[in-house]
């Protein structure tokens, strides 16, 4: 929180020394020494004694010092707002800043103080509006101009942080899989089982994205849609770990052969592979040349490969860090004939 200690106002010399002036000057001295609590208490005493305080003096025109104080009484309110700001009593600081503006609507520093308080509250749009009014009353103020520049960036950054958080929490992979949805619907026709397979792919991808957002990683696994009637569930699980599959051509080939047989023996209808880019030593499909050249940058992320007897699809989900948060971008559709992570698991049209 950036605070501006130097904008503390000393009332002009009063030909008649008054208690309120004495309290005000003492408050300023305590403020400058960093004793903001004592400063606030002294400003409060000065405000209570100030004849221009309309809440205490209903008949202001009759006050002996009114003409003197009506032009400077708001300074104590302003200074107390500064003290409250340092004490992080933000609601009280804001109330004082708004009172100072009411007492002197054309005074730049009242709006400046309000802007500083709103900035501390992280109400950046409101703070920016207050600083812009301050600039209208003093267009030459470099300090206000700097604040506006700073707040414009802070407001933009805060908005983006909120957008990133919304994207992290509102994960909807289905909207990116329309092509797969249409293809499955056409292949299976009146057979409603395609909906189960489509939901399986969506759920697998969304679970992977959520895991990546929370832990910055996903486990290398293959998920299977098992036959509800034929699969011996005591022998075949719906998930197979493949974290060692990509260490070498040999482990890759062995894993592929195992998975292909597993799909047959478990009577699986479809499968989804999820593999983080970081664990793949072979095949590094993003290092291809010529027609196999990778066109999707060097971002970290993970692959999702869908396998079924009638359809194969491949996506890469890029990841980056934005505003201190891990964020997965929209899945990128890859040409599976060029970038497949594993060869075909199901015999076509089985």
TrEMBL record:
> Which SUPFAM superfamilies does the entry mention?
TPR-like (SSF48452)
Q: Does the keyword Translocase apply?
A: no
- What organism does this protein naturally occur in? Rhododendron simsii (Sims's rhododendron)
Q: Which UniProt keywords apply?
A: Repeat, TPR repeat
The highest taxon in the source lineage is: Eukaryota
Q: Which Pfam families match?
A: TPR_11, TPR_2
Residue windows of the TPR repeats: 20-53, 108-141
The GO terms describing molecular function are: Hsp90 protein binding
Q: Where in this chain does the entry annotate a coiled-coil region?
A: none
Quote the protein name from its UniProt record: Tetratricopeptide repeat (TPR)-like superfamily protein
Q: Does the keyword Repeat apply?
A: yes
């Amino acid at each position: 929180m950036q605070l501006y200690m130097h904008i503390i106002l000393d009332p002009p010399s009063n030909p008649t020394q008054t208690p309120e002036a004495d309290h005000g000057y003492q408050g300023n001295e305590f403020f400058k020494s960093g004793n903001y609590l004592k400063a606030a208490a002294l400003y409060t005493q000065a405000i209570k004694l100030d004849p221009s305080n309309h809440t205490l003096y209903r008949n202001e025109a009759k006050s002996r010092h009114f003409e003197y104080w009506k032009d400077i009484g708001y300074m104590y309110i302003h200074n107390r707002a500064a003290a409250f700001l340092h004490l992080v009593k933000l609601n009280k600081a804001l109330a004082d800043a708004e009172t100072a503006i009411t007492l002197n609507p054309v005074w730049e520093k009242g709006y400046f103080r309000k802007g500083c308080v709103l900035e501390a509250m992280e109400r950046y749009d409101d703070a920016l509006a207050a600083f812009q009014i301050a600039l209208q009353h003093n267009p030459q103020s470099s300090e206000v101009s700097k604040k506006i520049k700073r707040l414009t960036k802070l407001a933009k950054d805060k908005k983006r942080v909120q957008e990133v958080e919304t994207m992290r929490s509102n994960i909807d992979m289905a909207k990116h899989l329309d092509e797969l949805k249409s293809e499955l619907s056409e292949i299976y026709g009146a057979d409603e089982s395609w909906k189960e397979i489509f939901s399986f792919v969506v759920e697998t991808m969304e679970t992977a994205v959520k895991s990546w957002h929370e832990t910055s990683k996903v486990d290398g696994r293959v998920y299977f849609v098992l036959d509800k009637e034929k699969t011996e569930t005591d022998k075949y699980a719906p998930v197979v770990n493949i974290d060692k599959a990509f260490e070498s051509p040999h482990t890759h080939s062995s894993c592929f052969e195992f998975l292909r047989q597993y799909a047959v023996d478990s009577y699986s209808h479809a499968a989804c592979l999820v593999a983080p880019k970081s664990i793949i030593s072979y095949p590094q499909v993003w290092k291809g040349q010529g027609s196999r050249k990778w066109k999707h940058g060097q971002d970290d992320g993970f692959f999702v490969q869908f396998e079924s007897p009638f359809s194969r699809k491949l996506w890469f989900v890029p990841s980056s860090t934005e505003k201190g948060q891990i964020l997965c971008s929209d899945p990128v559709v890859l040409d599976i004939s060029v970038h497949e992570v594993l060869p075909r698991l199901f015999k076509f049209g089985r």
